[in-house]
Specification:
Strand order of the largest sheet: 3-2-1-4-5-7-6
Number of domains: 2
Strand content: 5-15%
Distance between the termini: 43 Å
Length: 309
């Protein structure tokens, strides 16, 4: 049985990076270091790995485990700051590979006190960095029903968003919503159509978490910086866990592979389009063995692209 913290699509993503032993790499979502460990194993003495994570627990873990490795460094920051972190490290245009493993890490889900889990009781927090921003409990205490419904529908793709939002607002009138199981119970009772093999609070928790952490905004900012950070021939590997992330990544890669846009009807030769990325292979999904050993991997998708110019 695999451990809960095992990285999803580990070998396919490492192989996709086509690691040069003397190259420079960025693990922009360190988590608990599964991918970083494999990258370091493939690097030689001249290689370099810069890790990024906004979670102070992840950063502390990285320093304990890899702190003695001169090839490794980590910065506590959101991957939205990829350009700024790369600039400070002197890596702009020099990175041979960037890995983004999106979503919540297993340790964050498994630790009830982090407030991500709808099956373990803990304070309703959901912040990747508990020291910045407002918690889910603080937001739910003051947000209007329409705002909550918009978040559940937009980020959680919850079909019953308005009904659930109304139930949340009604419940908080009587008792402040401060714990994860408290919220999960409210959502479950308000959800009229439970999906098979899926907890009825799954989509609502996902939507609130994405909103609280500005996850899609962070991804958009990171993608906009990717090409300038990568060296020519450098590769980008992105692992997504839900459709909103994957659509953004897929659209970005395809647009950059098509090149410049011109008005309809303007005669354009292929070499004038100036594509910036080349799509590498097809989307990769976990094997049956991986999903059997780690059910959390079942929705994962890996997409890979390489910088052309």
């Amino acid at each position: 049985m695999k451990q809960a913290h095992d990285s999803v699509l580990l070998q396919p993503s490492i192989e996709a990076l086509k690691i040069d032993p003397a190259g420079s790499y960025i693990d922009a979502t360190f988590g608990r270091g599964g991918h970083s460990r494999e990258i370091l194993r493939a690097l030689g003495e001249q290689g370099q790995l810069l890790a990024i994570d906004r979670d102070p627990q992840a950063v502390a873990h990285a320093k304990r485990v890899f702190g003695q490795d001169a090839r490794f460094s980590i910065v506590q920051e959101s991957f939205a700051m990829l350009a700024e972190v790369s600039e400070q490290a002197g890596l702009m245009g020099r990175v041979n590979g960037i890995l983004l493993d999106l979503g919540v890490s297993s340790p964050q889900l498994d630790q009830a006190e982090r407030g991500f889990s709808f099956t373990k009781d803990g304070p309703l927090d959901m912040r990747m960095d508990p020291d910045s921003g407002i918690s889910a409990a603080e937001w739910l205490a003051q947000a209007e029903s329409r705002e909550i419904a918009d978040v559940l529908k937009t980020y959680g793709e919850e079909r019953h968003a308005r009904r659930i939002a109304h139930a949340i607002v009604e419940a908080r009138v009587h008792t402040p919503i401060t714990t994860t199981l408290q919220l999960a119970d409210i959502v479950s009772k308000a959800n009229p159509a439970w999906e098979k093999s899926k907890h009825p609070a799954t989509r609502s928790f996902q939507g609130i978490r994405i909103y609280i952490n500005s996850e899609l905004d962070a991804l958009q900012r990171a993608l906009q910086a990717i090409i300038d950070v990568l060296a020519i021939g450098g590769r980008l590997a992105v692992i997504s866990f839900h459709s909103l992330e994957d659509r953004m990544v897929k659209r970005f890669m395809r647009e950059q592979a098509k090149g410049d846009r011109f008005p309809p009807g303007v005669p354009v030769t292929q070499d004038s389009l100036r594509p910036r990325l080349h799509l590498v292979g097809k989307a990769v999904r976990p094997s049956e063995d991986e999903t059997a050993a780690n059910p959390r991997s079942r929705s994962a998708v890996l997409r890979v692209a390489e910088r052309l110019s």
